[in-house]
Amino acid sequence: MGYWEFLVEYLPKLANGAVMTVMVMVCATLLAVTVSMVFGLMRLSSHFAIQGAATVYIEFFRGTSLLVQLYWIYYVLPLMGLTLSPFISGVLALGLNFGAYGAEIVRGGIQAVPRGQYEAALALNMSPFSRMRRIIIPQIYTIILPPAANLTVELLKATALVALITVVDLMFVAKQINATTWLSAQVFGTALIIYYAMARFALIPFLRWLELIAARKIGKA
Amino acid sequence: MDTTHPQVLPEGSPLVRFSGVTKCYGPLTVLDKLDLDIAQNEMVSIIGPSGSGKTTVLRVLMTLEKINDGVIYVDGEPLTHMPKAGGLTFSTERYLHERRSKIGMVFQQFNLFPHMTALQNCVEAPMQVLGLSREDAEERALNLLELVGMGEKKDQHPTRLSGGQQQRVAIARALAMRPKVMLLDEVTSALDPEVIGEVLNVIRSLNSEHNLTMIMVTHQMGFAREISDRVCFFYEGKIAEQGSPEQLFGDPQNERTKQFLHAVLDAS
Fold first, then answer.
1. Inter-chain contact A134–B129, Cβ cutoff 8 Å?
2. Total structural domains in chain B?
3. ipTM for the complex?
4. pTM of the model
5. Please, what are the averages of pLDDT over each run of 10 residues along chain A (221 residues)?
6. Domain tally for chain A?
């Protein structure tokens, strides 16, 4: 079978898998962004317990294997009475794991806003909450977006792991086709190209666009 | 009860009083039992060599830094401390929040909010902190931007403004909170020489037409001499000498003052 016939036959199936990959990726990214913000802010809390909780969370999710976390959520939680669908399990593991990395990016971003901005807001008698919400947070995006973009591309590629807990994503479909046809080079080669194309032609331009908007908001573009 | 630091100052007391204020950074004492009174409508300049504690005076009054000893009073009430059980205890954030609006500050580096236009910079705190409606806050902000000559630039972001223009917006932003005392921390030190004048003109008009109480840390000796009611020369965390501009610049008594004035006047 030539590569052309292979594509005609199997590309639609792979495309279906890719749609699932995108869904996992989008949901996991939304969760990761939320987790990053919450735990990034908690890390900077002056309250000992809040800061401590965030540190423990980050250390745990950053310090252990994503694949093991995925298996824990999908295979071990049911033993404790919590059964989650493959999709939910995959999104949770990816979101919680990447959120731990993201939290450190958010913390770094907040700390990178010039000290004078805190002081100006304080001198205007703004409350700690408004200082953060109105003055500091709007300024972190230009700082955190480049490293966050890196992490998002990383997340897209990490979604392939959810195939191992039976989410029918691009990787899962590729493995299925491989098992029945033994056309390993064609099927995994095509999968590589699809992952690359999603990152290169959709995700990265989108993230660049976000960076541009963020720069414009603070008058830098 | 500690009678050196009363819970309230008697009627007719100065607007700002530093009473035995000490501030240390680790082993370094930057303010050493400082006593300083600022009267209503007074324009006080603080001069001195770097490291003499002059900027720290403004920073502790703005509550950007905590003091180690002594009490600062504003408007008759303690600021750094609050009354408790017949004495004074360090202020809580809530106590400070109720009083900090009496003080406004303009910084050497302007510190405008880069994600907001000139107008938004001036509207933000009056709405968030004082609870003004948008219309009221904008009206107040526009008047002040006009006052500093920045009315036409109200919709510009700070990056589109020159240093002098940014500093004038920063002055309007501080004024929008209607502070009782304005603190000016080397407000022209980061400016190009050709725009210093426009900022000094604004300060001049605030002083002469609006009679605002101001404390100004400055290296502009000519300006300090022209505008101040009183000049304080700081040395090693203390006021080494103070007096009217004529007296301090014309006939300094303290050896340190003479040396300092010699050095800076020779340089310029």
1. no
2. 1
3. 0.93
4. 0.88
5. 89 95 97 97 94 96 96 95 96 97 97 96 95 95 95 96 95 95 94 96 95 86 59
6. 1
